[in-house]
Amino acid sequence: MSRDDAFLFEAAPYHDMRAPAKSPGRGRWKAWLLLLPAAGLVVAGLLVPLAATVVTSLTGKGGLDAYRDVVNDAQVRTALRNNADWLGLALVVCALGLGLAWLARGVGPRLRRLLVVALTLPTVTSPLTAGVIFRMIFAPDPGLGTVNALLPEPVLFTGRGWIWLVLGLAFAWQWTGLAFLVFHVGLANLPEDLLRVAGAFGAGPLRRLRAVTAPALFPTAAVALLIVLTAAARVFDLVLVGAPGSVQPEVDVAGLLWWRRRTVLGDERAAALAVLLTVTAVAVALVVLGRLRQDWPHAERPWRWPPQPAPGGPRGPRRTAAGAGDARWPRRVAAGAVTGLWAFPFVVLLLTSFRSPDAVATSGWWTGGYGAGSYGEALDGGFFADALWATAQRGLLAALLVVVPAVMAAYALTHAALPRRARRAATAAAVVLAVLPPQALAAPLGWALGGVLGSTLALSPVHAALLLPLGVLLLRNAFMSVPRPPVTRPVAPRRTARRSALARVVGEAAPAVATVAVLSFVLVWNDLVVSLLLNWPAADQAPLTMRQASRYFTTSAGELAAQGVLMTAVPAVLLLVTGGWLVRGLTQGVRR
Amino acid sequence: MRMNRRRALAALSGLAAAGLTGCSAERPLRVAVVWSGWELARFRRVLEGEPVTVYSAGNDIAALLRKPVAPAATPDVAIVPQPGLIRDPEIRSRLQPLTSQDPSFWRDLVTGPGDGQAKGVWFKVAHKSLVWYRPEAVASPPTGWEAWWALCRDRAASGRPPLSVPAADGWALTDWFENVLLGHAPDLYGRLHLLDPADWGDERVAQAFIRLACLWSIPGLVPGGGRRALVTQFHDAILDVFRYGRADMVAGPDFAWPVIDRYRSPGREARWFRFPCSAGERPPLLVGGDAVVALASSEERGERFVARLTGGEMRERLAPWARAGGFLSLGAGLRDDDYPAPVRPLARELRELRGLAESGKPGAQATGRSIAFDLSDQLGGALAGGDGQGLWRILTDLFAAVAVDPCPPGKAEEAARTAHAAAVEAAASRADGS
User: Hey, what's the signal peptide range on this chain (chain B) (predicted)?
Assistant: First the structure.
C-alpha cells in the first residue's frame, strides 16, 4: 500500500500528543543495563555460535568452495526448493486463516468459541504428533486409513507425489489457527467509521481493502506471519515422522538434510549448508521486517490499536449481529463444518489411543477393539513418564529464562530512555534472530557445551536464547500499547518510580507476559530439533522417545497415539486454562 | 527480599548442579544402546532391578563414542551394531580390552588391526539370509535363484503376488543386495567396506544389481504394485504375508519371527528357506549383530558388566527374550530349547560357526557357505546408510525404477547399471578425501 493514500493516513490517526517522557543522561545507561541480560543470552547463545559456523564454512579448503560444493549438490538444491515451497504454503495458510476469520464474524458466540478452540489446539500440538495423526488418517491401506476407507480406489497418500498433500494438510491444520486468531481480533476491530467514510467517497471494495482494511490488519498480522513463516522455514519433525523412508529424499528440507548428512558433508560444507538455511530464513524475516518498518507502530507514538471503544460502544459482535440476517445460517453451517474438520484429527488420535495396539496395527478406528493397551505399551517401564517429567522441567526453566530477560529488554525498547535508532536496531535484530535455525548453531554449541550435554537442564539456556527474540517482539508490542502516564518523573524518589513503572507496565501487559511464558514452555515441550541436534546422548525428551517408537509405523501406531495424546494434553490444558489471556496476549498484549 | 532472591538463586544453582553432574557415589552404570521400541523395552526388562540406566542413542552412537559429552551422558557400556566403529582407532583408544569367548569369525570383527585385542563381545546376533513363507502357498521351497525367479514369475503371471518387499525401509533392500552379492562374489564382498572404487567398479557388483533388477521388475511381483511396496515397511510386509495373505513370501532376518508370531492370523504357519543363490555359488550367510563394549572410563565396573551380560550369568533373564524371538546369542548360557522352534536351527548355525570357522580365515568357507557381516553396517562416507542416504537410497531408486512401471529386461539392466554407477561414484567421492 502506498504512503500517499489518503485513507491510510486516516487509518492511524492516534498520535500521542503528550510530552515525551524521556530522561537523557542517567536514565539512558540504565536502559542499556536493562537490555544487558537479553543481549548476553543472545550473544552467547546465538551470535557467537552463528559467527563460528560462518567462519567454519569459509575456512578449510578455502574461500567459497564449500558453498559452491553445496549449491552444486542436487540433494541440497531439492531440499532448498522444498523449503521455498513450504514458505509459499505458509502464505497460503495465513490467507486461509484470514478467510476463516472473516467467516467467523457472522456466527454466534458459542459456535465461535468452539471454532477458536478447534483451530488453536493444533497450534500447540507438536509437529511430531501432527505427523503421526496425518500419517494414520492417510494410511495407504483402506483397512487402516480413514480417507482411503472412504474412497472406491485406494490412493497411496504416503507415496511419492501424494505425500505433499498429507504433509501440507498437516502443516495447514497446525498453523491456520494462529493466523485465524490474529485476523479474527484484527477484523473485529476494523475502523468502521473510516470504512463508511471511504464508502461515501466512492471507494470500491477493493480500494477499501487496500487502503483501510489491509493497513489496519497488518500490524497484528505481522507477528502471526513471522511465526508461521518461521515454522515453515524450520519444518523438520513433520517430514521426519510423516513420510516413509523411501519418500524422504523427495520431501527433504534443508534442516533435515543437514542433520542427516552433516558427517558425510564434512565440517565446512555442513556449515555452509547451515549458513544457506539461515540466509533463507533471514530473507523471509527481512520481508516481514520491511513491512514492519512501514506499518508497525513506533515507540515514540504509543500505539492505541485497536482503538479503545467507548464503554458500551460498538464492537465486532454487535456490528455483525446488526448486518447479519440471512447471511448468517450459511456461515454457521460453514463454521460448524470447519470446526468439525479441525477437530477430526484429534478425534482420530484419541480414539486410536484407546484401542489395543494389535487392533490399531490391523484395523481402522471405526471397527472397535477398544481398551487401554496402547497406554500400557506407551507407559511400560515408566520411561515415557520420566521423559515427560524431564521435558517439563526443561520447558519450565527455559520459559523462566525467556520471560525475565525479555520483559527487561522489551521495557527498555518501549518505556525506557533508549535512543530511537537503538530501539529500531534492536527490534530489527530481534526479528532477524527470531528465525535463526538451530542447525546454524548446533555444531559450535555442541562443541562448547560438550561437557554438560545430556543433562536434563543443559539445553534450557539454548532453548531460551532461540526463543528470546520472539518473546521480546511480542512483549514490545504489548508494552507499547500500555499508555504512559503524562509524567514519569513524579515527586517520589527516582528508584521507586522506576521500579513501579516497570511493575506497572508488566501488570498492564500481563496477558502478553503470560503468553510469552506459555509459548516458550510449549515450544520447548514440543521441540524435537534442538534435542535431536544437541541432546542425543540422554534422549530423555518425550518427543525423542516418541520418534524412536515411530520406526515401524503401523505396528507402533497405538503406542504412538497414546504418547501423542499425553504429549498434547499438557499444552492443551495450558491453552484452555489461559485461553482468553493468550488471545489478548498474542494480539493486543494488554488488559482491555 | 534480598535474602529471598539469594536463596532462590542458591536453590536454582543447586538444582542445576544436581542436573549437570550426577554426583552420587554409587551411581548406576550407564548403558547406551541403539535399539528403540520393542527391542529397547525387552532389553530394559533384562536389566530390571539392576543398578543400570539404559538409554537409546539411536543413530548417534558413533558420535557418542567418539566425542566427550556430559558426565551424565557418557556411557560406561555401549552396545554397537557397527563393528567398524570398534575397529576405528579413535574409538578404540577409549575402549577397554575384553575377554571374548566368541568364535574367531566374530572376534576378528571387533579386533583391531594393530593390537590384536578384542574390544567388543557379541551380545546379540542376527541371521539375515532367510525368506519367510506360508507353507500352504509355497509347497516346496525353491532350490536356487533361478528356480525362485521362475516361481515368482509364474505366480505373478497368474495374478497372485508372490512376494512382499518392504521397499520403504532401505535396510531391507540392502539386505537383498548383500545376499545376492555375497553369494555371487564372496571375496569381493569382504573388501567392499574399504570403499576402493576399483572394487566397487568390478563387473560382479554390477551383476548383483542386475540380478536384483531382473527379479524386482517382474510385473505383479508385489501386492498393490511397486508404488505400494515403496510405502510398505518391514512390519507391513510381514503382515501382508502372514496376516492378510496378500503375498506368499517375504525376505527377512530371524527377527521377523516375533512380528510374525504376534500378528499372523490364527492357524497360519510360518516357515523359512535360505536366501537362494545361483547354481555353482555357495549359499550366502549374511549376519548382523550388536557387540558390547566397555569404555575405559568405566574401569572394572564396565568389564564386569560385560562379562555378566554375555557370560551366562544372565541366562534366566535373557531366556524370555530368546523365547519371544528376535534374540539370538552366541553363548550367554542359552540352550537350543530357549529359542522358538523356527529359529532354533539358526541359533545353532550361528553358534556352530565357532568350531568350523576357528580353523579358517574370517569369512571362511569351512561351512560350505559364504559368511559375512552386513555390509551396509560397515560402510562409511557417501555410501553410509540412513533414510534417503547412501546405499539405501541407491537401492530404493533402483527398486522404484524397475518395479513401479512396466519394465522390460533391457530397461531393468539399464537401471541396474545406473545404480552401479551411482555406487561407484559414491565410493570414489570418499577416495577423493572429501
Answer: 1-18
